[in-house]
Amino acid sequence: MRRLGPVVLFALAVLAPLSVMATGPCARDALDSEVCLAGPAERVVSLSPGATELLFSAGAGAKVVAVSAWSDFPAEAAELPRVGNSNRLDLEAIVSLAPDLVVAWIDGNSRSQLERVSDLGIPVFWLAPRAFEDIARAVENLAALTGEPALGKTRAESFREGIASIESRYVDARPVRVFYQIWDQPLMTVNREELISKAIEVCGGVNVFGHLPRLVPRISREAVLAANPDAIVTAGQTGNLQWLEDWQQFPGLTAVAAGNLFLEPPDLLARPTLRIVEGARHLCQTLEQARANL
Asked: Which domains does the chain possess?
């Protein structure tokens, strides 16, 4: 561990006993580690925008004392102090806040950095939603750890019902083959393990690159032409329209010939939070339009 400043050393002396005093709420995280607290967390640090949103959904917004960069939803989160981003965390700032819980994201945060936080006796709870049920369970777990178990269960169950409703509505829908573009240079998409792909599936869509081994694979333009999707979808601000317009130079693509080039609202699908229900509903409406155009 790197040399620690006096603020961190003081925090170590105060927080280290928590590891042996933890007799309060417990929850199992994405690393399959059971995290137990001395009592419901009152000071929470969130290290990803998704974690921040899930904490607010779990009823713990008032207990969040700091967040990572890009934590902009709900609006209150944007006003909280920042303690770094996915590339670099300000460990001394985190420890100086004397949190009794840190919520981290497996795909974005450094495990080696957060091992230092754990070594100081500060519980770290890891999230890595890979399925809709993971989102619901994350809300329940965060609510339990922050003293709002009933609220967490209510919101998680509402989320489950929302996903189930979408699945039942589109279970017999005519398949639409989809290329979901998440970046332009290099050209990138998602495989079937990513939640965006699972949203495509509940809408009756088929991810043409779902079979690829990497969660976020790089692909070539030639691979897209060979896959010949029925629809090309991306998400973001209006600037991302250029990504879609670039495909117009290939009029032989089914998606181009049918006019099935679509821009989805940002964040709703990109962040694995309760709002993905809203994102999935919007995507389903988009794919319904794609079906009508084919």
From this structure: 6-160 (3.40.50.1980), 172-293 (3.40.50.1980)
